[in-house]
């Protein structure tokens, strides 16, 4: 189910008014950790945005017809692109999307030059891809997000320690708007409808990264 901007704003307002935490009894050392929005404590840090990395890699994979793009090569190119981000006057939203549509090969660098997560996602979605290109993305998308999460937590000691502190608890993105990266349900309805959960790919990626970090004595 897709929500309008107004519906999302109203949902956020209700969350603030109700002050409903997106966690279970995980604060007490057990239970499933539900997270969704960055301002929700104590686990909002789990959803701090890594959209740019993911959208860049998606655009890189899908805007290169016939190319087998590995996650590691996409990562290396994303680092290089980040160093040459344009500092010129930004184009309008329509101009940016139009350029990506007219020349898909430009969209990866355009995503790296865009600071707003919503615009990054819009750029990645602005180009129509072939079934074979989409199939290629489906093959690598989990590894992309897992590697992006590894970079995210390994470069910040405090965030790494907070991730490790979740221990062996289940990490679940309780987004009612996303049943691929999340479970498609809000936290307050999640446990009673566990059979209806979506894929929770983001939660699984974070648990994988956390497990690898533990295996390296707490160091990513």
From TrEMBL:
Pfam family, one: NADAR
UniProt feature, compositional bias: Low complexity: 73-88
Residue spans of biased composition, Basic and acidic residues class: 1-16
InterPro entries, alphabetized: NADAR, YbiA-like_sf
Domain NADAR: 109-209
Region (Disordered): 1-27, 73-121
NCBIfam families: ribofla_fusion
Protein name stated in the entry: NADAR domain-containing protein
Species this chain originates from: Oleoguttula mirabilis
